[in-house]
């Protein structure tokens, strides 16, 4: 995107926050730390929720789960220090009912305020507690004996915290910013037809309603996020994100690419050497890929295929074409374990055909690294397999034509851009093939990957028997161990996966270690292996190789085996603490079995009691092996952020929109995006700038 000169500051759309009363350098710095530079940034800092202090609820009428405001008298106060300090204040009102206010953080002065007989007003969410309903950390204010509670005439917006700025100051600043909202016509960027068709308010009206909902606003509608004001904002936000991704695509396409269209001899030889025939779906996707690569524009294709659908070989055949055309291929995987496995496959497939396959991971150091870098830079290495180490500055390719990224959701858009830049050769960009085993519901895929074309391998290789899944309480561990003994006696192999909530490789490794020891003691006749993230790459590789060769019968592992590990003879999988994992992850793990002809099973071990959510998840896993169906459920249960690992993709940064809730807006969004890009690219720029802001810089990358 070309740099535009800064607009004159008289324009209310670009005034600095420092023009607001009470914003000096200190406050401006705090706002800036949160990405709030201009007055308009404050308009778009939207409430997370609303609190209804427009009325007082009699304590007797409180309902668990429904936040409410009460006015009452302190009845009793209790301070305890059993496990941690706690302050409990019983409050009652003329309805004769009592509610307990419970505080875990409080200071002496605060505690001293609560004197039996004093009146107060409190707002919070009642929950069932030891003695009836409780409010944990309610907001409250003491009242003079005869004072009115003073109900508000509007819903109170609750804003995301800005560090170092109190909620009251923020509320005031946003109020000041809203006073500068220009007339509707000046603010509006959406085509009028679109708004009218969807019967949505103008942006000005939507912002005013969202920040300061009137007392008669439909609160349940607001709470669900489906108020027309919110829908209006969500529409524009979705449009902005979509446009931003589309522009990345357009910018990339503008680079052009070297068309790859060899006679196809190398791929044909590889095909002949394979022990199997491609499925119809693999062939179709391969054709799509080959067609894309033959064009003078960079391919941007996402291949989705359920676990075990055979994506790797499709990538290998595409790679063969690039190599035959005299160019290089980079294959990047998110973990070393997975990258090593790809390396083994690619070497087995391509080296007999005379193709040089090089290896580059973070752990490749010293002379080996220098050698690898030289091979890559000289072009002698025709295929380079590795981890994100491939993206480092030192890595230079001689003539990179194809970048394959496996398990896309673990890499972000930005990382993808970094690898692409490796292939920038004059004005040309490499073709990109992105593979993911996390099936993403269609609507979501269209939004998350608006910069990519999508192919789906929707057919499994023949001869697979579906995995049978059971959920078993951890109390029955003994039976599960017996089951492993029996399976291994029949020549089968098994995985035991240890999972933990803590996001610490260290703790997880320890847990796996001790499980390994227990199981070794319980199964003295079996040959066990241990695999976790703290082991050296060479150790991991050795263990994997022994398991693959059938020397080890039971592999005790952490979730490092989640992605891509492929040992067809393994047909039993035990997942410990399965209730803690999300569906997508369980599906990935389970995908490690059911890869051979033997009937496979998966045991989901859980620690009772199960929450409702956990029960539902295990039930979904028990009932289905269809990755797309599981993804739809996952989306329903957890929302898109979790599903896509959006901390990386940037989708989590939606302020109002919710891809599930607002899914019905997406077709409109896509249509509007096409129209804007074609007819008023300037407007499109402004929409992106407004909502995506700094992230939009990547658009021109
Ligand atoms: P994923 O899509 O999960 O990455 P892989 O590429 O690892 O799946 O393939 C899973 C297994 O299926 C591998 O052992 C692979 O060799 C095998 N495979 C791939 N395609 C076919 C096919 N058409 N017929 C039989 N087996 C296949
Ligand atoms: Mg794979």
TrEMBL record:
One Gene Ontology term from the biological process aspect of the record: DNA recombination
Catalytic activity line of the entry: ATP + H2O = ADP + phosphate + H(+); Couples ATP hydrolysis with the unwinding of duplex DNA by translocating in the 3'-5' direction
The Helicase C-terminal domain, residue ranges: 490-636
Keyword DNA-binding: yes
UniProt keywords, alphabetically: ATP-binding, DNA damage, DNA recombination, DNA repair, DNA-binding, Helicase, Hydrolase, Isomerase, Nucleotide-binding
Gene Ontology MF term list: 3'-5' DNA helicase activity; ATP binding; ATP hydrolysis activity; DNA binding
CDD domains: DEXHc_RecG, RecG_wedge_OBF, SF2_C_RecG
PROSITE patterns, per the entry: HELICASE_ATP_BIND_1, HELICASE_CTER
Keyword rRNA processing listed: no
Source domain of life: Bacteria
EC numbers: 5.6.2.4
Database matches in InterPro entries: ATP-dep_DNA_helicase_RecG, DEAD/DEAH_box_helicase_dom, Helicase_ATP-bd, Helicase_C-like, NA-bd_OB-fold, P-loop_NTPase, RecG/Mfd, RecG_dom3_C
All residue ranges annotated as the Helicase ATP-binding domain in the record: 292-457
SMART domains: DEXDc, HELICc
Pfam (any one): RecG_wedge
Protein family according to the UniProt entry: Belongs to the helicase family. RecG subfamily.
Database matches in NCBIfam families: PRK10917.1-1 (NF008163), PRK10917.1-3 (NF008165), PRK10917.1-4 (NF008166), PRK10917.2-2 (NF008168), recG (TIGR00643)
Function: Plays a critical role in recombination and DNA repair. Helps process Holliday junction intermediates to mature products by catalyzing branch migration. Has replication fork regression activity, unwinds stalled or blocked replication forks to make a HJ that can be resolved. Has a DNA unwinding activity characteristic of a DNA helicase with 3'-5' polarity.
Name the record gives this protein: ATP-dependent DNA helicase RecG
Gene name of the record: recG
